[in-house]
Amino acid sequence: MTETITIRRPDDWHLHLRDGAMMEAVLPYTARQFARAIVMPNLAPPVTTAAAAAAYRERILAALPEGMDFTPLMTAYLTDDTDPDDLAAGFEQGIWVAAKLYPAGATTNSASGVTDIRNIDRVVERMEKIGMPFLAHGEVTHDEVDIFDREARFIEEVAIPLLKRHEGLKFVFEHITTRDAAQFVEAGDARIAATVTPQHLQINRNAIFKGGINPHAYCLPVAKREEHRLAVRKAATGGSGKFFLGTDSAPHARSAKESACGCAGIFNAPFALEAYAEVFEEEGVLGRLEAFASLDGPRLYGMAPNEATVTLEKVETRVPGTIDGGTEPVVPYRAGGTMGWRLKA
Ligand code: NCD
Ligand code: ZN
Question: Which of 5, 217, 312, 321 has the most other CB atoms within 10 Å of its CB?
Fold first, then answer.
């Protein structure tokens, strides 16, 4: 008999859906697995106002195929000029549920991001007051800091002082990649949590260079040394309740990845849940997959877990080499390989 596991329907607490034709093409992959997703605001131009977020949400819902049940949870893109009143009004009206810090220059479409965390003191103060989660792309961006050290330096330079100044702020350290971040979150109080991607559980930085440059293994924060992967894996599968599912699925057209200036981002949405199931199985804690995927995220966000369930079967599944990305193909995570699990239709 095929081994199966049934869990409450999961949510994706960190997702890039893009816009237009690409959004229409990639959205069904997320919606078939996840009931809700935190939709990242780094469009060009970024989603900085509640009105823009409401319009983006409408475009997502309009693109959702008939019969699919999926709720986009919108986020605000913080800038040096974010207006605390607009941010709070959008939160109170239920237009967006969190705000995202992109340190200026940290990643794709982050040029309008925050240039100095102290510039948004009043905004953060308001978020703390109204209980609006603060989502951090946790990397410093100074040229003199090595790219592999940027997450650890963010903890010292930004996160610790910020959380001291705002002792009630709900803080999600997005897509953690280091032992430093895992330990920091683990040691923090209940308002501090982290999302973890499939790739940071499965690949180390060798993947980017194996047999030549592999642009499809390049994302930000960049994959780190093996010891960091193991530490993140231990944290994510350890059952503390502070680490939960956030794919950071970030599709880019194949030509934009396979280029002299390849974009950062891994498109893992098509088989995300399967990839996480592999990790929990390998660690011998498949029983903890449900908390990671479906319970711990809603708790931090103050939402109820989903009532519906999904079932995964232990069946080998082929990952296609490319996927239709609307106007151009997109190469998915683990393209051409196989997954050990399959989501039952
Ligand atoms: C993301 C993207 O392409 O929007 N890229 C990535 O490598 N993860 C941005 C981000 O989350 O850093
Ligand atoms: Zn992201």
Answer: 312
Tokens of 121: 């003191």
Q: Is 81 a catalytic residue?
A: no
Residue nearest ligand 1's atom 5 by CA: 265
Of 110, 112, 246, give the one whose Cα is nearest residue 173.
Answer: 246
User: pTM for the whole thing?
Assistant: 0.98
How far apart are the C-alpha atoms of 203 and 223, rounded to whole Å?
7
Q: Is the CA virtual torsion 188, 192, 196, 200 positive or negative?
A: negative
Domain that residue 312 falls in = 4-343
Residue pointed to by tokens 């009043």: 122
Are 227 and 290 within 8 A, CB to CB?
A: no
Name the residue of 12, 16, 75 to mutate for ligand 1: max ligand atoms within 8 A of Cβ. Answer: 16
C-alpha atoms less than 13 angstroms from C-alpha of 143 in its C-beta half-sphere: 0
Look at the chain and report how many structural domains it folds into. 1
Half-sphere exposure of 36 (CA within 13 A, CB side): 20
The single-letter DSSP state of residue 269 is G
Task: Give the length of the chain.
Answer: 345
Q: What is the CATH number of the domain that holds 241?
A: 3.20.20.140
Mean pLDDT by 10 residues, the chain (345 residues): 96 98 98 98 97 98 98 98 97 98 91 95 98 98 96 98 98 98 98 98 98 97 98 98 98 98 97 98 98 98 98 98 98 98 95
